[in-house]
Write a structure and sequence with these properties.
By secondary structure, this protein is mostly beta strands. It has four domains: 72 residues, Immunoglobulin-like (Sandwich); 93 residues, Immunoglobulin-like (Sandwich); 110 residues, Immunoglobulins (Immunoglobulin-like, Sandwich), CATH 2.60.40.10; 77 residues, no CATH class. 0% of the residues lie in helices and 44% in strands. Strands 8, 9, 12, 13, 16, 18, 19, 21, 22 and 23 form a ten-stranded mixed beta sheet that branches. Strands 24, 25, 26, 27, 28 and 29 form a six-stranded antiparallel beta sheet that branches. Strands 2, 3, 5, 6 and 7 form a five-stranded antiparallel beta sheet that branches. It is globular and about 75 Å long.
Length: 387
């Protein structure tokens, strides 16, 4: 795949998959202003050009990813004259949310996230932030916002639920203004998460490197069929002070428990954690949210894995089995499927454990791969199929 811009080599070209927007490759450009990205697997792609101090542009002439033209890449594909002309400036993403706090009160949450291509020093080089609500300008300024360095995020919470309607955010810096809008469509009083049912308890000392955290689901009484999505977070210090988030899940409808991966936690350290619940699974789509208070736990020193894992070959596992497939062109498949049981916990991604199978009579050894967890991550299946 060849991409030519025929302009001064200012911009970085980024190639992303069309379905998920995941980054595939970055090309910085040649002295003549041309770009070449090679070795791409066949598929659907979009192209984005970006540079510090400029607004991202997607092919063809759009700053919105959903409007980007998809390129169908096949073997020996070649695309030319995919040109970009980026405008100076920056972009922001903004949100308004109704927050139900653990003490039963409500807050309006306003957030403004600055584009990672911002050319200045944050937060000082942001000159002003103004917000206009459904009934007019809100009496707030940039100085009312807290700045969260980890997210390039200006954050403000004030008493009471937000007014229904459209909120317009304007952010100015060095003669440029970025604008974003968000809409508070509905107000819902999501019930509070039962903190008495959180596990582990506040202040617990944890000795395992793969601790399990759990909580009880909530139900929105006005609409029991409303999906509720949960998010779990861990910070390395007090989030209200200088804490840095070291782990978080996505919002997940079925997330009522999680076992974290090994090597995330340091021994002899205190961490902060909480659970959020929301009415959508995407941050910008969330209208109403609740969360627990911050709980703490301290890791033991040394931090280990006290339980001895067990293997089940016959209960929800098959050990070893073989069969012949494809009658027209037969081949034999050998499958190994075992269940690992560990009461210290098995991480959600399976990375806390490894399983191998060694064939008899000096045969080869193979790694089994993780496929699923069950029963609050206390046991998990690892499988391998060898042809």
């Amino acid at each position: 795949m060849r991409i030519f811009t025929f302009m001064r080599p200012l911009y970085r070209v980024r190639l992303l998959t069309a379905d998920s927007g995941d980054l595939i490759d970055i090309e910085s450009g040649n002295p003549d202003g041309s770009y070449e990205i090679t070795g791409i697997y066949p598929g659907q792609y979009i192209v984005r050009a970006s540079s510090s101090g400029y607004i991202n542009e997607y092919y063809n002439e759009s700053d919105i990813q959903d409007d980007a033209i998809q390129l169908s890449i096949n073997p020996n594909s070649e695309f030319e004259n995919i040109d970009f002309s980026l405008e100076q400036g920056f972009t922001v993403v903004a949100s308004v949310k109704n927050k139900h706090l653990p003490d039963g009160s409500f807050r309006t949450g306003l957030e403004v996230l600055i584009d990672g291509n911002f050319y200045g020093a944050l937060p000082d080089d942001i000159d002003s932030i103004t917000v206009t609500g459904p009934s007019g300008p809100l009496p707030i300024t940039k100085d009312d916002f807290d700045y969260l360095e980890q997210w390039l995020d200006f954050n403000l919470n004030y008493s009471g639920s937000p007014e229904i309607g459209v909120y317009t955010f304007e952010v100015s810096s060095g003669g440029y203004t970025a604008t974003a809008t968000d809409t508070q469509d509905v107000l819902r009083t999501l019930p509070l998460i039962d903190e008495n049912a959180l596990s582990p308890i506040d202040g617990a000392v944890i000795s395992t490197s793969t601790p399990n955290f759990s909580w009880e689901p909530i139900e929105f009484a006005d609409d029991p069929n409303l999906p509720i999505y949960y998010r779990f977070e861990i910070y390395d210090d007090d989030p209200e002070q200088s804490g840095w988030r070291i782990f978080a899940t996505r919002y997940d409808q079925n997330l009522h428990s999680i076992t974290i991966s090994p090597n995330l936690l340091e021994p002899g350290k205190t961490y902060y954690w909480r659970v959020r619940a929301a009415d959508a699974d995407d941050w910008i789509e969330v209208h109403n949210r609740t969360a627990t208070n911050w709980f703490t736990f301290t890791t033991a020193d040394p931090l280990g894995h006290s339980a001895t894992p067990g293997l089940e070959l016959f209960n929800n596992g098959i050990g070893a089995a073989s069969w012949t497939q494809n009658a027209a062109d037969p081949s034999t498949v050998m499958e190994h499927w075992v269940r690992v049981v560990d009461y210290d916990g098995i991480s959600d991604d399976g990375s806390s454990h490894s399983v191998t199978v060694t064939y008899p009579n000096g045969g080869p050894t193979y790694d089994l791969y993780f496929i699923e967890w069950t029963h609050k991550r206390k046991n998990s299946h690892y499988i391998s199929m060898i042809r």
